[in-house]
Design brief:
The chain has 341 residues and is α/β, with parallel strands linked by helices. It has 15 helices and nine strands. Strands 1, 2, 3, 4, 5, 6, 7, 8 and 9 form a nine-stranded mixed β-sheet that branches.
């Protein structure tokens, strides 16, 4: 069994996937790299197969019809044989020194008395044209270099969240909680780091800048204009997270810190949805914003009350043009979360 499976979802990734995979190969034989070619129309498939030929004991290629990012992650998880599981997008890469430390830590913890459910590390926003790189760190929030539980977690700041770039999950945990991401939908990475959390008991944090998250392509999913054009997919993900939260409210109520974190995460996703709908400026999207909040209210009145009467909920629902202008001021909070380009 491999120590770590890394899935690389690829769609028309010929111009940048080599840099990603080559950075992952530095993990050596402890790592299983699964390149998922999600129905690409360029030479992605051929590049993937070439890596398999060169590194047959490390790299696998999965070729499938196009189903979107979530579908590619699902396929990677289905084929994973590693003890732990991570997703690295094909335009991103990892830092070798941090990679080595992470693998060493996983190796040490794999044989321990307690099963490690989730390892967390830092990631760096590699934003095009920006010299000073923003780093998402957790060093004042999470205990360092020790196994800990939710009760040991301190306060997360606004804009500080555990994203897909931050996490490595125990593979069996993801399979046991039946994680399946929606197909043909963007922004499902939010579900990936949300739904497994009620099943996570033991965590470990390494304060290393491991994952390099590239931002700069005009067609990138976190480009603001692209997000507005795909707003229905953002709303779908938002609603699925609401449904999950409501279905698991008793579990969340029994674990205060985990429940608080998941509420705050749901709050920022709902704020992102609302801000984008406001910024689009169309009557159709303003109506979609009202419908989203009606959906929350019909799903769970207490959840609606908490979201609606929080600082961000109030800002999202002020009336008239002045109210919408104030709402857009909350956009800076969303920028910290998604780092829009």
């Amino acid at each position: 069994m491999k120590l770590l499976t890394i899935t690389v979802p690829c769609y028309n990734s010929e111009s940048y996937m080599k840099n990603c995979v080559e950075s992952l190969l530095k993990g050596g034989e402890d790592v299983e790299i699964i390149i998922v070619n999600d129905g690409s129309k360029d030479s992605t498939a051929q590049i993937a197969d070439e890596f398999v030929k060169q590194y047959p004991t490390i790299v696998k290629a999965v070729h499938k019809e196009n189903g979107g990012h979530g579908s590619a992650v699902n396929a990677g998880l289905d084929h994973a044989t590693g003890l732990f599981f991570k997703v690295v997008d094909s335009d991103d890469w990892v830092k070798e020194s941090a990679y080595k430390e992470i693998l060493e830590t996983l190796r040490e913890l794999a044989g321990g008395e307690k099963s490690l459910d989730m390892l967390i590390s830092n990631f760096v926003y590699e934003k095009e044209g920006v010299k000073r790189k923003k780093v998402m760190r957790y060093h004042r929030t999470l205990p360092e270099k020790e196994i800990f539980t939710w009760s040991d977690v301190k306060h997360f700041k606004k804009g500080q969240y555990i994203l897909m770039h931050s996490v490595i999950f125990r593979t069996k945990l993801l399979k046991e909680c039946n994680l399946r991401l929606p197909e043909n939908t963007f922004y499902v990475d939010n579900i990936f780091v949300f739904e497994p959390l009620p099943y996570v008991r033991n965590m470990y944090y390494l304060d290393v800048n491991f994952y390099r998250y590239y931002i700069g392509r005009e067609d990138q999913s976190v480009n603001e204009n692209v997000m507005i054009s795909r707003i229905d997919q953002q709303i779908l993900v938002n609603k699925l997270m609401i449904d999950f939260y409501v279905a698991h409210r008793q579990i969340l109520a029994g674990n205060h810190k985990m429940g608080k974190y998941m509420f705050n995460y749901l709050e920022i996703i709902t704020t992102v949805s609302s801000v984008l709908l406001i910024r689009s400026g169309t009557e159709e999207n303003l109506e979609k914003k009202k419908e989203l909040w009606r959906y929350i209210k019909s799903s769970d009145k207490l959840l609606y009350f908490r979201l609606r009467h929080g600082i961000m909920g109030n800002a999202m629902n002020l009336h008239g043009k002045v109210g919408r202008d104030i709402s857009v001021a909350s956009y800076k909070i969303c920028q910290k979360f998604f780092n829009f380009n």
